[in-house]
Design brief:
Elements: E1 27-28, E2 75-80, H1 95-101, E3 109-111, E4 117-119, E5 122-127, E6 133-138, H2 152-166, E7 173-174, E8 177-178, E9 180-185, E10 188-192, H3 200-205, E11 240-245, E12 249-254, E13 267-272, H4 277-284, E14 290-293, H5 296-303, E15 309-324, H6 334-343, H7 346-353, E16 360-361, H8 385-395, E17 401-407, H9 413-425, E18 430-436, H10 438-445, E19 462-467, H11 478-482, H12 493-503, H13 508-524, E20 528-541
Parallel strand pairs: 2-13, 17-18, 17-19
Antiparallel strand pairs: 1-4, 3-4, 5-6, 6-10, 7-8, 9-10, 11-12, 12-13, 14-20, 15-19, 15-20, 16-20
Helix pairs in contact: 6-8, 7-9, 12-13
């Protein structure tokens, strides 16, 4: 029988700060709604200078950060991996870029992990009983950084840009058919769909709102706006404006007229810092205010120094998974894929690559526990080495060499690759591991699903990736895999048909029933192996509080709760 696991979100025991200190966006649950990284750090280099403290743990002494001045207490310094060419809201794609621009731009609303919405530019969303009409009201006091009110003209501008770029209005389009968009007044707008579409919440929450008045309502002007968004002082909707751009950093200064209140942190400095021990040393010297922890050694080290540091933990709402490429050179058959999955020990992956369930847990589904459609009783894959060896031998998998690709910019991915390499070697399979940076990995991994069959899709057999921000009440990112019309991930057409029905069904019981069916059906095909649910654990300087006020990855969506005064 397949084993079942029920997961709880784990918080680090040393987390000392209360969520009640947050000053985050208004949270509201829509009762009538049918809705649905960080470079891996290596072990920190230890300093030889010690502090007069007899309670410090052996081999964990670090140089104490210098005392901060009042000016430094108004500044929050964030490590970034590179300097972007532009800070335009529509030029991103990576987690790093999203983190860099979060202080500058607000969304209409964001789905949270409790099943509701956190409102920003909008203050309400109403969904009609038939699931067709989505009515958004923009906050009366929402304004651009130049003082201009944010209105439905800006939403219309977003729709016009979509038409300019894609040839259709993506905010009212379902299954190739467009509905209508109706402006009621300066602050109210309706999106009328041709049929119910639970994914609409994600579509609207992902909208980048642009200042129509800056571009004179011409969506084509956005295509040549790189210089505009690379010059300090460009118009923003978030809590900060860019006041300074340097060769290796840029400075965001708090707005006094921000519609949600004045940030406690007056300046946010985004500074290019190296990875691994370089970042750790910069943190311990007080050059940056926080960093992510990805190893048990780091976690234990900083947990032992609560007099100097704070620890924060939140679920990433991310599923990291292993993908079998249906176009791979080995062209693995059903029995060979089944043998691979029997050989994987999920608990050993957690222990070997993360070292603690405080950093990651063993998943049982393609959905995460932060999603309302997640079922903790979904049957998990079974680890059975004897069965794996038997199948590997009888299917011809034994003796094969498979190409395995991973994104080395993602935390712990290399360690996961090494563990899997060791596990599959036990059934006579050799993994040829290839680590790449994000810019090289994603085009190769997604070559088949991008409808750009340039040969890259046939160059690898196995690959690891992660779906992030998997929360809310839809299938979220899993939908794009289950309903992949090009069969890029090798799943049957039935999976796609079920996924499409789930997104257009308004009956909650029927939706859950079909979701359970499609997840079990997808897993039974041995194409995608759920590897880890990851937690995002951070260490900050002692005077930094509020990093857990708005739990979302990549960090941070709400800077109002962050303080550097302790």
């Amino acid at each position: 029988m397949m084993k079942k696991r029920i997961f709880a979100l784990l918080l680090v025991a040393a987390m000392t700060l209360s969520m009640t200190a947050c000053n985050s966006g208004t949270t509201a649950k829509d009762t009538n709604t049918a809705t649905p990284e960080t470079t891996e750090s290596t072990e920190t280099k230890e300093n030889t200078e010690t502090k007069e403290n007899t309670e410090t743990k052996e081999n964990t002494e670090t140089t104490a950060p210098a005392e901060t001045t009042s000016e430094e207490n108004d500044t929050f310094t964030v490590a970034i991996s590179y300097m972007p060419d532009t800070l335009a809201p529509h030029s991103g794609g990576s987690d790093d870029y999203t983190s860099m621009t979060r202080p500058l731009y607000d969304k209409l609303f964001i789905e949270n992990t409790t099943g509701g919405l956190d409102y920003y530019l909008a203050d309400s969303l109403e969904v009609s009983d038939d699931g067709l009409t989505y009515t958004i009201h923009i906050r009366d006091d929402a304004n651009w950084s130049d003082g201009t009110p944010i209105t439905t003209a800006d939403i219309q501008f977003c729709a016009d840009y979509s038409i300019h770029k894609y040839g259709y209005n993506r905010y009212i389009r379902v299954n190739g058919v467009e509905g209508s968009m109706n402006i009621i007044d300066d602050k109210t707008i309706e999106f009328v769909l041709p049929e119910p579409y639970n994914y609409q919440i994600i579509t609207l929450s992902g909208m980048n709102v642009y200042p129509s008045h800056v571009f004179n309502g011409d969506p084509a002007a956005l295509e040549s706006a790189t210089e505009y968004y690379s010059t300090p002082g460009f118009v923003t909707s978030g809590a900060y404006v860019v006041s300074e751009i340097n060769e290796d950093s840029f400075v965001c200064t708090a707005r006094d007229d921000y519609y949600r209140g004045t940030p406690q942190v007056k300046k946010v400095v985004m500074k290019v810092i190296g990875s691994g021990s370089t970042k750790s040393i910069a943190f311990e010297n007080g050059e940056i205010d926080y960093m992510r922890i990805t190893t048990i050694d780091e976690l234990e080290k900083y947990e032992a120094q609560t007099d100097k540091y704070n620890i924060f933990s939140m679920s990433e709402a991310r599923l990291n998974y292993l993908q079998v490429n249906p176009f791979g050179p080995a062209n693995l058959n059903d029995a060979q894929r089944e043998a691979l999955f029997y050989a994987i020990n999920g608990d050993e992956v957690i222990a070997g690559a993360y070292g603690s369930e405080k950093l990651a847990t063993n998943p049982n589904s393609l959905l995460t526990p932060e999603m309302s459609l997640y079922n903790p009783d979904t049957p998990d894959y079974v680890y059975d080495l004897d069965k794996a060896k038997e199948l590997a031998k009888s299917s011809g998998l034994e003796g094969m060499t498979l190409t395995y690709i991973f994104n080395k910019d993602r935390a712990n991915m290399e360690a996961v690759a090494v563990v899997l390499q060791q596990q599959l070697a036990q059934i006579g399979v050799t993994l040829q591991i290839e680590g790449m940076d994000s810019s090289s990995f994603f085009p190769r991994f997604f070559a088949a699903s991008s409808y750009n069959f340039n040969g890259q899709e046939t160059t690898w057999d196995l690959g690891t990736n992660g779906w992030d921000s998997m929360k809310g009440s839809t299938l979220n990112q899993a939908y794009s895999y289950l309903n992949q019309s090009s069969n890029a991930w090798g799943l049957t057409d039935t999976c796609g048909e079920l996924a499409a029905k789930i997104n257009t069904t308004t009956d909650s019981e029927e939706t859950q029933k079909m979701t359970d069916e499609v997840i079990e059906l997808a897993l039974a095909q041995h194409r995608i192996y759920p590897l880890t649910y990851t937690n995002y654990v951070m260490v900050s300087q002692k005077n930094v509080t509020g990093l857990d006020c708005s739990p979302i990855v990549p960090e941070f969506i709400d800077y109002l709760g962050i303080s550097v005064n302790g």
